Structures are given as structure tokens and as C-alpha cells.
Amino acid sequence: MPGSTRSGRDVVEQALKRAGDGCFPPLGRASGCCTIIHSPEGRPAELRFRGFTDD
Fold first, then answer.
1. Which of 15, 37, 45, 50 is 20 to 30 A (C-alpha) from 25?
2. Do the beta carbons of residue 7 and residue 23 sit within 8 Å?
3. Which residues, listed in sequence order, are joined to residue 48 by a DSSP beta bridge?
4. What is residue 1's predicted lDDT score, i.e. its pLDDT?
5. What does the alpha-carbon distance between residue 12 and residue 16 come to, in Å, rounded to a whole number?
6. How many Cα atoms within 13 Å fall on the side-chain side of residue 2?
7. 26-31, long-range: CB < 8 A, 24+ apart
8. Global confidence as pTM
């Protein structure tokens, strides 16, 4: 999310729902991105991958 340095799962889920409005870059064929999801304590806890193949 713009302006956030340590996003929790709820923030990432909200941003994914709004992906078309610039929260996440648009993804074309053969592209992807990875987002770090932090625990409530601020530590990295999960990785969220999103992407598309070029098939």
C-alpha cells in the first residue's frame, strides 16, 4: 500500500481487491510480483506471489 512500509495481511488483501487502481502494478503476460506480509509485531511472516504465465 502506498505510504506503508510493513503491510499486514489485511492491508495486502484490500490492495489486491483494488489492484486496478494503482495499489499494485498491472501485470501482463509472463510477469509477476512478490509482496512481503508482516506479522502484527512487524516481522516478515509470509510472501504473497501474484503473476501470469506466457502460455
1. 45
2. no
3. 35
4. 45
5. 6
6. 7
7. 27/51, 27/52, 28/52, 29/53, 29/54, 30/54
8. 0.60
Radius of gyration from C-alpha coordinates of the chain: 12
Of 39, 35, 32, 29, the residue nearest 48 (C-alpha): 35
DSSP class per residue in 1-55? -TT-SS--HHHHHHHHHTGGGTTS----TTEEEEEEEE-TTSSEEEEEEEEE---
The whole-angstrom distance between residue 23's C-alpha and the CA centroid of its chain comes to: 8
Higher pLDDT, 14 or 5: 14
C-alpha cell at 53: 504465465
